[in-house]
Design goal:
Distance between the termini of chain A: 11 Å
Number of helices of chain A: 10
Structural class of chain A: mainly alpha
Shape of chain B: globular
CATH class of the largest domain in chain A: Mainly Alpha
Radius of gyration of chain A: 22 Å
Structural class of chain B: alpha/beta
Largest sheet of chain B: 6 strands, mixed
Mean pLDDT of chain A: 89
Order of helices and strands of chain A: HHHHHHHHHH
Helix content of chain B: 25-40%
Helix content of chain A: over 70%
Oligomer: heterodimer
Low-confidence stretches of chain B: 1-17
Strand content of chain B: 15-25%
CATH architecture of the largest domain in chain A: Orthogonal Bundle
Strand content of chain A: under 5%
Number of helices of chain B: 9
Mean pLDDT of chain B: 88
Number of domains of chain A: 2
Low-confidence stretches of chain A: 1-6
CATH superfamily of the largest domain in chain A: MetI-like
Largest sheet of chain A: none
Chain lengths: ~260, ~280
């Protein structure tokens, strides 16, 4: 970053310290409130107990294996979202009729509680990871399509004229102008889609008691092992953190600072 | 594509080519069909631009400057008449015409060098060669040292210079600019004008500039074509006999003031018509 940027210089260290500090503060406050019996330890176990249970959950409940199952399902759903969702958005941009015919439906579909359809997919796909992946894909699809469409439509007219003045072929126009211009919006869509997909993955895993971390939460909570339950939830959060860091890396690799 | 490499090699040597205008606009009109009837944006436009000449088209808002720009750029077909560049009729964007747009047209995902190399890349020029050439033009517009900067890190004036460098890198026979400095402040505009003048003289570049800014027009041009308010016609053509090489210092001279006054007296009437019409429209609403 240079002076011409006009933005105040960011202090990454200060920001990181503030973030971690807030997190630690909340944990300490929770611990304190539980120890003072303001919060019942049967509802929320003290963070110290959760921390202590990590080792137990990891060794006894095969957390690592489960973590990779959930992670794998997320990767599969993310790949499907990218491979299907982005081209669908492109198709909607390319064919005005298609767009006019379906845009409102897709927007409505984005708001629909698709997760309720899980029994249907249990029947179609069977009680296996595919049900979980397909549900996640369907939950995350709408924002990917809509954001891709939005990004492609929002390209500045002057850039399209520039493309015309260079006598670009439609192929060049898409790959050299439209797609790179839409990339930030596409990534926003993918990020949104993945949020919905991850919620769906853990939710459906929990509901059908199959797969990775979702059933673990189910099992542990049924055992009234509250510290273990929260420890498992921490692993779910870890999956999402890893995923978003990964996505950010890919975005930065494709799109140097702009 | 209307020009093949063969045409290029068989084109006449420079001394005879100079007899043929680089740009010829002959009897051009453009009409638009509106719900309320037909609108004539420009009509009976005819003028030539010689090789190496700097010609400015000036007119009030609504005189069809942008329409004319789009037609010369091959972005909009003319309803009547023909536009020729270096003898070839323009029906679509022509290889020989390099365009600088009014709006910021830098590609935000490419750095300065990548932006300038972009048209060369489309043309399939080898990487080393195109980066070399891009580097040359980046330095020419005074952006040396900013090669790796992204457009978002540059000021508006710098971004417009990137766009100019990018267009020059194509080595167009005709540089066509649509109010390239419109969004810049007056001082930046004057200084960029110096840069453009100097580059134009060095490269002997044929330039057509579209603007509504009188100072800019007089500072830069060999000839100024003044247009009327709607429908846009040519009101007058004024030769600017100011010495070259020219810098923005000339803005303070008597001759400069004289030209500005002369053009303003022409434009004033036309701009008033536009103002009256705009007010009338506002009143109807």
């Amino acid at each position: 970053m240079t002076e011409t940027d006009g933005k105040p210089k960011s202090k990454p260290l200060v920001a990181a310290a503030l973030g971690l500090g807030t997190l630690l503060g909340i944990i300490l406050l929770t611990e304190l409130l539980i120890r003072l019996s303001v919060i019942s330890r049967f509802v929320i176990p003290p963070p110290s107990e959760i921390a202590m249970s990590f080792g137990r959950v990891i060794t006894q409940e095969d957390v690592v294996g489960r973590f990779f199952i959930t992670m794998g399902e997320t990767v599969a759903a993310g790949a499907l979202l990218t491979v299907v969702g982005v081209p669908l958005g492109v198709a909607l941009h390319r064919f005005a009729v298609l767009r006019q015919a379906t845009e409102t439906w897709i927007a409505a579909y984005a708001a629909a509680p698709v997760v309720l359809a899980y029994p249907l997919f249990l029947v179609i796909c069977g009680r296996n990871s595919w049900t979980i992946i397909v549900m996640a894909f369907l939950n995350g699809l709408a924002p990917v399509i809509l954001k891709t469409l939005e990004g492609l439509s929002a390209i500045k007219p002057v850039l399209l004229n520039l493309g015309r003045s260079y006598r670009m072929t439609p192929w060049q126009q898409f790959w050299r102008l439209l797609f790179p211009a839409a990339l930030p919006a596409i990534f926003t869509g993918l990020r949104l889609g993945l949020i919905f997909a991850m919620i769906s993955i853990v939710g459906v895993e929990f509901l059908i008691n199959l797969g990775g971390l979702g059933p673990l939460i189910n099992t542990l909570s049924e055992r009234y092992d509250m510290p273990g339950t929260y420890a498992a939830i921490c692993f779910v959060v870890l999956v999402s953190i890893i995923f978003f860091v990964l996505l950010e890396r890919i975005e930065r690799w494709l799109q140097p600072r702009r | 594509m209307t020009m093949s490499s063969e045409d290029r090699t068989t084109s006449p040597p420079p001394h005879t080519a100079s007899l043929r205008p680089m740009l010829s606009v002959a009897g051009v009109a453009r009409r638009f069909q509106l719900a309320s009837g037909q609108l004539t944006a420009v009509e009976t436009l005819s003028f030539d631009v010689a090789a190496g000449e700097f010609v400015t088209i000036i007119g009030p808002s609504g005189c069809g400057k942008s329409t004319l720009f789009n037609m010369i750029g091959g972005l909009l077909p003319a309803s009547e008449g023909t536009i020729r560049v270096d003898g070839e009729t323009v029906t679509e964007p022509h290889e020989a015409i390099g365009i600088v747009f009014q709006e910021d047209s830098t590609l935000p995902w490419r750095n300065v060098l990548g932006n300038v190399a972009f048209p060369l890349e489309l043309r399939g020029m080898p990487k080393a060669e195109r980066l070399d050439r891009a580097q040359h033009f980046v330095e020419l517009v005074g952006l040396g040292g900013f090669e790796k900067h992204m457009p978002a890190e540059l000021s508006g004036g710098m971004r417009q210079r990137v766009a100019i460098a990018r267009t020059l890198a194509q080595e167009p026979k005709l540089l066509l600019m649509d109010e390239p400095f419109a969004s810049l402040d007056e001082q930046t505009r004057l200084l960029l004008g110096d840069k453009v003048t100097q580059i134009q003289q060095d490269l002997k570049q044929t330039v057509v500039l579209i603007t509504h800014n009188i100072t800019e027009a007089v500072q830069l041009s060999d000839r100024i074509v003044v247009m009327t308010y709607r429908p846009g016609r040519i009101k007058r053509v004024i030769d600017i006999d100011l010495p070259r090489p020219r810098t923005s210092d000339i803005v303070g001279s008597d001759a400069f003031g004289h030209y500005v006054a002369e053009i303003w007296s022409d434009l004033r009437e036309e701009a008033s018509k536009g103002l009256v019409e705009a007010e009338a429209r506002a009143r109807v609403r």
